[in-house]
Structure prediction request, 75 residues.
Amino acid sequence: MVKHLTRHGNSAALVIDKALLALLRITMKTPLELSTDGKNLIISPLRNAQRASRFRTALESVNRRHAKTLKALAE
Prediction:
Protein backbone atom coordinates (compact mmCIF):
# COMPACT_ATOMS: atom_id res chain seq x y z
CA MET A 1 0.00 0.00 0.00
CA VAL A 2 1.40 3.37 -0.98
CA LYS A 3 0.20 6.44 0.92
CA HIS A 4 0.95 10.15 0.64
CA LEU A 5 1.04 12.71 3.42
CA THR A 6 -1.80 15.21 3.64
CA ARG A 7 -1.39 18.81 4.78
CA HIS A 8 -3.02 19.45 8.16
CA GLY A 9 -2.45 23.10 9.09
CA ASN A 10 1.32 23.53 9.36
CA SER A 11 1.81 19.79 9.85
CA ALA A 12 1.61 16.64 7.76
CA ALA A 13 -0.91 13.87 8.39
CA LEU A 14 -1.03 10.26 7.29
CA VAL A 15 -4.53 8.95 6.62
CA ILE A 16 -4.93 5.31 7.67
CA ASP A 17 -7.72 3.36 5.98
CA LYS A 18 -10.55 1.96 8.11
CA ALA A 19 -9.75 -1.63 7.10
CA LEU A 20 -6.17 -1.29 8.32
CA LEU A 21 -7.33 0.28 11.59
CA ALA A 22 -9.70 -2.63 12.12
CA LEU A 23 -7.01 -5.19 11.33
CA LEU A 24 -4.67 -3.65 13.92
CA ARG A 25 -7.50 -3.00 16.41
CA ILE A 26 -6.67 0.71 16.51
CA THR A 27 -9.29 3.34 17.30
CA MET A 28 -9.11 7.12 17.42
CA LYS A 29 -8.34 6.82 21.14
CA THR A 30 -5.51 4.29 20.81
CA PRO A 31 -2.18 5.90 21.77
CA LEU A 32 0.44 5.35 19.08
CA GLU A 33 4.19 5.19 19.54
CA LEU A 34 6.33 6.67 16.77
CA SER A 35 9.90 5.47 16.40
CA THR A 36 12.49 5.09 13.69
CA ASP A 37 15.30 2.74 12.85
CA GLY A 38 17.07 5.53 10.98
CA LYS A 39 15.48 4.72 7.62
CA ASN A 40 11.87 3.83 8.37
CA LEU A 41 9.08 5.36 10.41
CA ILE A 42 7.54 2.79 12.73
CA ILE A 43 4.05 3.41 14.10
CA SER A 44 2.99 1.01 16.84
CA PRO A 45 -0.11 0.97 19.03
CA LEU A 46 0.64 1.01 22.74
CA ARG A 47 -0.90 -2.01 24.35
CA ASN A 48 -1.43 -0.95 27.95
CA ALA A 49 -3.46 -4.06 28.70
CA GLN A 50 -0.40 -6.27 28.22
CA ARG A 51 1.71 -3.99 30.38
CA ALA A 52 -0.96 -3.87 33.10
CA SER A 53 -1.24 -7.65 33.06
CA ARG A 54 2.52 -8.09 33.48
CA PHE A 55 2.50 -5.55 36.31
CA ARG A 56 -0.35 -7.34 38.13
CA THR A 57 1.44 -10.67 37.80
CA ALA A 58 4.68 -9.21 39.17
CA LEU A 59 2.85 -7.47 42.03
CA GLU A 60 1.08 -10.69 43.05
CA SER A 61 4.39 -12.52 43.01
CA VAL A 62 6.03 -9.91 45.25
CA ASN A 63 3.05 -9.93 47.61
CA ARG A 64 3.20 -13.73 47.93
CA ARG A 65 6.96 -13.83 48.52
CA HIS A 66 7.07 -10.95 50.97
CA ALA A 67 3.67 -11.17 52.66
CA LYS A 68 5.08 -11.38 56.21
CA THR A 69 7.44 -8.45 55.68
CA LEU A 70 4.73 -6.29 54.11
CA LYS A 71 2.33 -7.10 56.94
CA ALA A 72 4.98 -6.16 59.53
CA LEU A 73 5.67 -2.90 57.74
CA ALA A 74 1.96 -2.07 57.65
CA GLU A 75 1.70 -2.43 61.42
